[in-house]
Amino acid sequence: MSRYVVTGGAGFIGSTLVRKLLGESGAEVAVIDNFLTGKRSNLDEVSSQIDLQDADIRNYGRIAPILRGADVVYHLAAIPSVPRSIHEPVPSHEVNIDGTFNVLRACAEGKAGKVIFAASSSAYGDTPTLPKVESMLPNPKSPYAAQKLMGEQYISVFHQCFGLNGTALRFFNVYGPRQDPSSPYSGVISIFLRCLVERRSPTIHGDGEQTRDFTFVEDVAGLCIKASRAPGTGGQTFNAGNGGRFSLNKVWQVLNEMEGTNIPANYGPPREGDVRDSMACTKLATAKLGHAPHFSLEEGLRRTLQWYKASHSA
Ligand code: UD2
Q: Ligand 1: distance of its center to the CA of 122 in Å?
């Protein structure tokens, strides 16, 4: 019997991970979420099987008892978004840095067995080399990127100073079912899919030739579980990308082809803090964690589109 805690478990990545963990026999799963960006409805079909705690990671006293003694803590709770961290730097700092410190402190004091931390590819910034390799010097361009990098540093320091067995995974533009398209800070694929389903033009920031290593949520959730079981990885950081890259123009074209539409995109000024190109080197994660992403962009988009269509007509 293993006890898992997923912070941010009501988010689209967290809720996918929760479902995977529940697939294990005898798994006990607790979720910590304050429903700022996560949604209860993301956990609807599994809510009777989990211990759902409405708690904020900024509140140490509230979360410490939930984390105490967990076999694995998946720390995914965050205020995501590069532009949001520029427009609202205070809450983003408080959740992403102070909240992460609280989670790690509670895990160390409460003797959690393992922590997996959701770090971000944004740590690389605009360093020219592709693919991005973990050994490269980071170069954050936004508060969000700096905050996620600080989380990695804390993972390393908590390992060295307090013996906490934590591993950081740099997520690369994760997308998939249940990603919420309703905020201007939402991930671009969720926004594109909503536009497609509603037959509207999306706004592309810049020329649309910026590239991202879009990674399907099932692959990321699978890697989180593999990383929690990989020996000898305490204090380390790994890329959790797919190892490819696609421009926004290409993604919009593929989506149009899937629907048999030809909706043009609108173009606006580039977004502040934006990185131009991003693509993961997956060698280290493959060798040390057994990373083996299954989903091509087309397959991931097809599944995600299906979900948006079903939830839009519901
Ligand atoms: C960053 C990280 C990603 C993850 C994410 C969390 C990089 C390379 N990636 O994603 O790993 O941590 O932050 O939030 O730093 N865009 C449009 N139109 C829209 C919305 C977005 O053109 O309506 C553009 C945006 O300017 C950017 C791209 O789409 O060039 C991707 O934006 P995003 O917000 O989906 O993710 P990004 O790359 O900031």
A: 9
98 lines ligand 1 (CB under 6 A): no
Is there a catalytic annotation at residue 154? Answer: no
Classify residue 251: in a domain, yes or no.
Answer: yes
Contact 174, 118 (CB under 8 A): no
List C-alpha distances in Å: 33 to 57, 133, 268: 8, 32, 34
Query: How many C-alpha atoms does 12 have within 13 Å on its Cβ side?
Result: 19
Q: Whose CA is nearest to atom 18 of ligand 1?
A: 204
222 lines ligand 1 (CB under 6 A): no
Q: How many folded domains does the chain comprise?
A: 2
Q: How many CA atoms lie within 13 A of 312 on its CB side?
A: 19
Kindly report the average pLDDT of the chain as a whole number.
97
Question: What residues are paired with 120 via a beta bridge?
Answer: 171
CA dihedral 197, 202, 208, 210 (to 10 degrees): -70
Question: Is 220 close to ligand 1, i.e. is its CB under 6 Å away?
Answer: no
Ligand 1 atom nearest residue 270's Cα: 26
Q: 278: Cβ below 6 Å to ligand 1? A: yes
Domain of residue 268 covers 188-211+245-278+300-312
On the question of a cis peptide bond just before residue 89, with omega within 30 degrees of 0, the verdict is no
Q: Tell me if the pTM is above 0.90.
A: yes
Task: Give pLDDT, residue 1.
Answer: 84
Read off the CATH number of the domain in which 252 is found.
3.90.25.10
Task: Give the chain's residues under pLDDT 50.
Answer: none
pLDDT at 313: 75
Name residue 61's amino acid: G
Ligand 1 within 6 A of 81 CB?
A: yes
State the pLDDT at residue 154. Answer: 98
Choose the catalytic residue: 4, 74, 124, 144.
Answer: 144
Structure-token match 């040390």, residue found: 288
* Residue 147 belongs to some domain of the structure: yes
Q: pLDDT by residue (tens digit) across 242-277? A: 999 999 999 999 999 999 999 999 999 999 989 999
